[in-house]
Amino acid sequence: MNGSYGPDFRAELRDLMRWRRDVRRFRTDPVEAAVLNRCLHAFALAPSVGLSEPWRLIRVETADARAAAIANFEAANATALAGYDDEKARLYAGLKLSGMREAPVHLAVFCDEATPKGAGLGAQTMAETRAYSVVGAISLLWLAARAEGLGLGWVSILDPVRLARDLAVPDNWHLIGYLCLGWPEECSDTPDLERAGWETRAPDLIMEIR
């Protein structure tokens, strides 16, 4: 490999990115261990500031842990709904914003803000780059999952402090994302929020020149 790819590969990559959607409607069928492990290998390939690899994953499987996470979402979702009025409140109430009850795989992904790995290179001036590294790794996981036919949903309507407490993680672990992973009920290249009339994609990239 000389570092470049042909037009067919580039077209498939564009398709993969276009069909990567935030999935909230899952079938309950289990995900085979080999398929999940291939997806999780994306973390080993992800870049990280100072090669710090600050991601920390918890697979949320027990009934108690899942119930706590779902209760967390439901409380946060009710609070969020109360912040909208009129048409936005009506639209929000009709959105399905979590696949937590159906998705067979739940992953809580944290950033270890105190990791000694990488010796602080790049993070001394911008500590947030550790969290950015975890976000970048999740993006690779998302694409890997889509390539396997899986869907991934990122649940951000949560109290991160409460979740960290419920999962008993170290104090220096900061929640980046609660991820639901499984087989989607349907596939679409259009975001759910756009189909529901909540928001539309910007027609053009916003970029300025200085």
From TrEMBL:
<dbReference type="InterPro" id="IPR000415">
    <property type="entry name" value="Nitroreductase-like"/>
</dbReference>
<dbReference type="InterPro" id="IPR029479">
    <property type="entry name" value="Nitroreductase"/>
</dbReference>
<dbReference type="InterPro" id="IPR012825">
    <property type="entry name" value="BluB"/>
</dbReference>
<dbReference type="Pfam" id="PF00881">
    <property type="entry name" value="Nitroreductase"/>
</dbReference>
<dbReference type="InterPro" id="IPR050627">
    <property type="entry name" value="Nitroreductase/BluB"/>
</dbReference>
<feature type="domain" description="Nitroreductase">
    <location>
        <begin position="18"/>
        <end position="183"/>
    </location>
</feature>
<protein>
    <submittedName>
        <fullName>Cob(II)yrinic acid a,c-diamide reductase</fullName>
    </submittedName>
</protein>
<dbReference type="GO" id="GO:0016491">
    <property type="term" value="F:oxidoreductase activity"/>
</dbReference>
